[in-house]
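Lecture 7 notes: from sequence to structure.

We start with a single chain of 189 residues. Read the sequence below before looking at the structure.
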Amino acid sequence: MSCKSKICKGLLRMMGWKTEGQAITDPQCIFLGAPHTTIWDFVVSYLFYGALDGKAYCMVKSTFFFPPLGWILKAMGGIPVTQKNRAVFVRQIIKAFQDNPKLQLAIAPEGTRARTDKWKTGFHLIAKTVHVPVYLAYFDWGTKTVGIGPKLELTDNPEADLKRARQWYKDKGVVGKYPEKFSTGKDLE
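Now the structure, written as tokens:
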């Protein structure tokens, strides 16, 4: 266990968080992280994966990459992206996978911290294009538990796969820091 791992575990404990699951050994993968209702989800998930001696990356708006904040974000696994154009955004992430043989990327399927009933399927296109597995990860503010759940087996039907993922989160009963901002979708409520 590294010094970083011990520090991250200690900080999580001090904050009252429990962990479930273990580091994923796939050199490349995507983690769906939900519910994403606050920027604090990033902090909790960063500490969690650090406690497992792993390094997960996440996408951050490119406008945040100015000194010194940009240096800190990069050190913590931030990948600068432009979000205005979906096609450009997806190409940026595919390129990141092509350029980095050890990329474990966290993606918020909601695409926003605001409440939305429509989750994004961009992760599906990325995973199928670069041939990486997708895992269901969570930060449950109701029980203060953060962890990695099962692998989401992808089919050629992104909407059906997304519905299965949303159902898993609903069945798990995860709660966001701001519960009113989290929805698994109207068709599951």
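Strands lie at 18-20, 29-34, 57-61, 78-81, 104-107, 134-140, 145-152. Keep this in mind for problem set 3.
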